[in-house]
Amino acid sequence: MPVDRATRQAWLIWATVVAVYVAALFHRTSLGVASLEAGERFGVGPAALGTFTVLQIGLYAAMQIPTGLLVDRFGPRRMLVTAALLMGTGQVLFALAHSYPLGLAARAVLGVGDAMTWVSVLRVAAAHFPPNRYTVVMSLSAALGGAGNLVATVPLTLLLAHAGWTVTFLITGAGTAVYAAVVAWRVRETPDGVSLPEPERVSPRAVLTRVGEAWRTPSTRLGFWLHFTSMVTPAVLGWLWGFPYLVEGEGLGRAEASAVLSMLVVVAIVAGPVMGAVIARYPASRMTIVAWFVVAGVVCWSVLLLWPGGFVPTPLLYVVFGVLSVGAPISGVAFAIVRDYNPMHRVGTATGVANVGGFGAVTIVALSVGVVLDLVGARTGPGAYRIAFLPAVAVFLFGALRMAVWWRRARAAVFAAESRGETVPVRLRRRRWDVLADA
């Protein structure tokens, strides 16, 4: 049963697990400002450089459903300990790697550890906080995780310049691995006096059945496409291609480019808790907020791709990157929807299903941009990047279309449940564009 209130112990446990998520965000995005150095260190071009992110994020996406099942089976504490150890090991290997294959192997290890983090954090929040606080806690988690993104911009750029590649990544990797002991010591699966049913051992067929049940829930499918659409743009720019675009495409210095890139983090950190509080107070309006972000995203991409005269004015780049950053906290709406419409024993699995959406989209776009840049050839000036970013726009628009379809279907499922006399988590008001029955 859900808890009635958040205790001091709940907040301490939450702070402990969020620190793992901060580390995950740092490691995940550390290649963003180190991408040019990585190209020189491993002697590779844009497509091969993009493979680092594609491999890491592709593994992340592939691991989401298994991670959800593992969290449901073994609990978030064990998964977070394993995640910290794997991320630390992967970053240490990356620090010592001098060959491209070893660098890929290191990012793969890091990606597997990263994949175990967010679903586990959300499961801890679901167990320790009442439903009416879940959205706020989730938004705070995402915002604080953004601190990892922030450290991976200007501070990491300065550290790389002064300490060098090996020392920088050795320190961050070792620190993450050691933190696993803190997680093992501090984290509890459930609040004191509350117990969950002993997880049953399930057969592969039962696993597929559980995934199928989650996937057939319209709100899970909506969460998948919402995450797909809202996350792809800030992730692709922040994790890999934003920094090269600003330096090579827009002609900014490295320090200025890092500052612009930091807007993806700073604005998200500020907007996340505010958005979480608004959505918690007005849950029926959360998809309307998502729809407005999609409109803003179309405007921002139009500025980057169609600005007359080529180079976008630097002040406008700050604004565009700041607006696009809101996609990160917006993507968290997917998990709130998933939690509302799935039973607790299936929340981990359903969250994993939804989480595949955004990371699958990022995998596709990160590779596509690198391949197009290789085909175009010259990377100086905005022209090459305008062409290379076309796949990102196509994926964004496709996701928005599918999200709109499943928004209507999820609403229809809610209205159908109400007509059967069932209690629904969020009461919705019918609109003229609503379908009459669950499709």
How would you describe this structure to a colleague?
The protein is mostly helical and 439 residues long. It has one domain (8-187, 207-417): MFS general substrate transporter like domains (Growth Hormone, Chain: A), CATH 1.20.1250.20. It has helices at 8-42, 46-74, 76-96, 100-115, 117-128, 131-151, 154-163, 165-186, 204-216, 218-249, 254-281, 286-306, 314-325, 327-331, 333-340, 344-376, 382-388, 390-419. The protein is globular and about 60 Å long. It is built from 18 helices and no strands. Helices cover 81% and strands 0% of the residues. The model has no long low-confidence stretch (mean pLDDT 85).
From the structure above, extract its key features.
MFS family permease; transmembrane helix; mainly alpha; globular; MFS_dom; 18 helices; Growth Hormone, Chain: A; 439 residues
- Write the H/E string, N to C: HHHHHHHHHHHHHHHHHH
Give the percentage of residues in beta strands. Answer: under 5%
Strand pairing plus helix content: what structural class?
mainly alpha
**End-to-end CA span:** 31 Å
Q: Major β-sheet, in short?
A: none
- Looking at the structure, the CATH topology is Growth Hormone, Chain: A
The percentage helix is over 70%
Please give the count of helices: 18
Multimeric state = single chain
Low-confidence stretches: none
Give the radius of gyration: 21 Å
When the domains are counted, the total is 1
Domain Major facilitator superfamily (MFS) profile: 13-411
Transmembrane segments: 12-30, 42-63, 79-98, 104-125, 137-161, 167-187, 224-247, 259-282, 289-310, 316-338, 350-373, 385-405
GO molecular function, one term: transmembrane transporter activity
InterPro entries: MFS, MFS_dom, MFS_trans_sf
